[in-house]
Amino acid sequence: MEDTLSQLSALMEQITQKQGSIAFHAQNIELAVNAGLEDEANGARELMTMFVATPADVWLSFLAAKEKELADIMDGVKEARVRADGAYSARVLGLVPRVLAHGDNGAIPSPELIPRARAPR
């Protein structure tokens, strides 16, 4: 692994000197893929797309990785939404017994039973 990382480092120096070299970019991707370094491989693909005309297979791999990254982000957003909805529902449903206990069931609750919104800081 250490040898692979030093090879990747040396290759990056070569790419810095010759950014338009398709061969260097292809080696960079291949080395990272063969080492199982997916993040580095995706970074190498992205780097290639910035400097040279990139073949379709590189673009497709790069876009697939971006789609997976976005799907993971959306899963996190959905989980946060579920937690927020649950917290909101618990707060609202927690008021119902208090409202029912302090007056007739059809009446508007007294102001002291309604939580006040906090002013933004």
Notes on the structure:
The protein is mainly alpha-helical and 121 residues long. The chain has two domains: 2-54; 75-113, no CATH class. It has four helices and no strands. It has helices spanning 2-17, 22-34, 38-51, 56-101. Helix 1 runs antiparallel to helix 2 (22-34), helix 2 (22-34) packs antiparallel against helix 3 and helix 3 (38-51) crosses helix 4. The chain is rod-shaped and about 75 Å long. The relative contact order is 0.07. The model has no long low-confidence stretch (mean pLDDT 84).
Write the layout of secondary structure elements.
Elements: H1 2-17, H2 22-34, H3 38-51, H4 56-101
Q: How many separate helices?
A: 4
Integer average pLDDT: 84
Instruction: Give the termini distance in whole angstroms.
Output: 50 Å
N-to-C order of helices and strands: HHHH
Could you give the count of β-strands? 0
Q: Describe the biggest sheet?
A: none
Query: pLDDT below 50 for ≥5 consecutive residues: which ranges?
Result: none
The Cα radius of gyration reads: 28 Å
Task: Give me a quick take on this structure.
With 121 residues, the protein is mainly alpha-helical. 74% of the residues lie in helices and 0% in strands.
Properties at a glance:
single chain; 0% strand; 121 residues; 74% helix
